[in-house]
Design goal:
The chain has 98 residues and is an all-alpha fold. It contains 2 helices and no strands. Keywords: Membrane, Transmembrane, Transmembrane helix.
Length: 98
């Protein structure tokens, strides 16, 4: 990036000092300047998109983790109730036999 700005500075100096080719160097300066800014803007946009997508993925992961935790808790409660119902039924069956 520094060399790009060195090129711009050189073109600017040529524009100021070479009166014969001033227009050519000025046009070249503007083209190079626009190209540099376009590349910088593209790079900045890519990083912004990556940061946004990373935030979205982290948020989805948190939601899925929370959901999995709820499913595990619900499963434990359900199986505990099943075991309790089984033991109650078994105790009632034994009490009827007595």
């Amino acid at each position: 990036i520094k060399s790009n700005y060195d090129i711009l500075n050189s073109l600017k100096l040529l524009t100021e000092n070479d009166t014969k080719n001033k227009t050519y160097f000025a046009n070249l300066y503007f083209k190079v300047n626009d190209s540099i800014h376009a590349v910088e803007r593209t790079t900045r946009n890519k990083f912004a998109r990556i940061a946004y997508e990373t935030d979205q993925l982290e948020e989805k992961n948190e939601v899925l983790t929370r959901r999995n935790t709820y499913i595990i808790i619900a499963s434990i409660v359900f199986f505990t109730l099943l075991v309790a119902i089984f033991f109650v039924y078994r105790l009632k069956s034994k009490n009827k036999e007595l």
